[in-house]
Amino acid sequence: MAEKDDLPEPDRTEGAPHPRETVELYGQERAERAFLDALASGRVHHGWLLAGPRGVGKATLAYRIARAMISWQDDGLFGSGPPETLRMDPEDAVFRRIAAQGESRLRVLRRAANEKTGRLATVITVDEVRKVKEFLQLSVPDGGWRVIIVDAAEEMNTSAANAILKLLEEPPEKTLLLLVSHAPRRLLPTIRSRVRVLDCAELGPEDLARALAATGAEPPRDMAALSQLSGGSVGEALRLMAVDGLDLYARLVGLFSPSGLDRPSMIALAQSASGRDAEPRYDALLRLVQMLAARLARAGATGTPPAEAAKGEAALAGAVAATPGQARLWAEAASRAAASTSHMRSVNLDPAQVILDTLLDLDAVLRQARSAA
Length: 373
Hints:
This protein is of the alpha/beta class.
């Protein structure tokens, strides 16, 4: 049986503090301001959807909001108006209780971990929502706000989603519901219609560098490239940095030549992602292969070469992804790569062979693209 403290957390990024422990938030000033303005207006909506790409700070924003709302009453400041900032000193009692998962006025709804196996559930179940209902039946001594965070909201199964919908339709008094979502279109339309949206944007290079430094990581020199390849996500940036992802992408782009992909280099790259300890590198390389095809597709569709994330990428796009017809070939390749690698991994094929087969498909697409020029 796994110890409680050792159970995995679905909302934790390896190598970074958990959002409940994070002090600073970068790049989401507009979303913070929108919430504070709503608070200052005296019209606090009971349901909020924090939407945006994975790893840009949505959960961190949710905890900042939770701390502010709980502290607003906890500090006896109701009569003096709502908080003007969401930042809180980490030594504050509310901050410390939430970081220690000991705040009675906060409930977090997420995929549960099995205490016997240590494995995470694949969805958020209605049983987790029932725990929220029990939480709401408890009285609040000072009459303050209670906060519920759902992370990630699209992971709720149908029964759980319907139970949350009922809470949104009949909101309990002084209860704030914060739905964190990486894919808001997957939520029930009725849920989306009953919440206010806080859009959280991808982090630019400067904000991403500051966020990485806050985790204790040393940002690389080429932050512009890392920002592009990570989609402005701190979590993805950390994963790429752990496997030298910028070098991986440079090697991938370097495979392409006028006559096709360089076969010896292709084999060496595939083999570098094989082995017992190479799974993070394997995962990253699969994502980067799909990303390169998608970036080439976008270049052909827009007629604009991408800002280079690796030397030679713009020239490659100009040669094989300059027309809508070529864009279609690369878009199909990206879709095919995503589907085929998912299948090949499910049947536990050799990682090197999976990578090699995917690269051979890109080689065939390259030849087609040259013919279509």
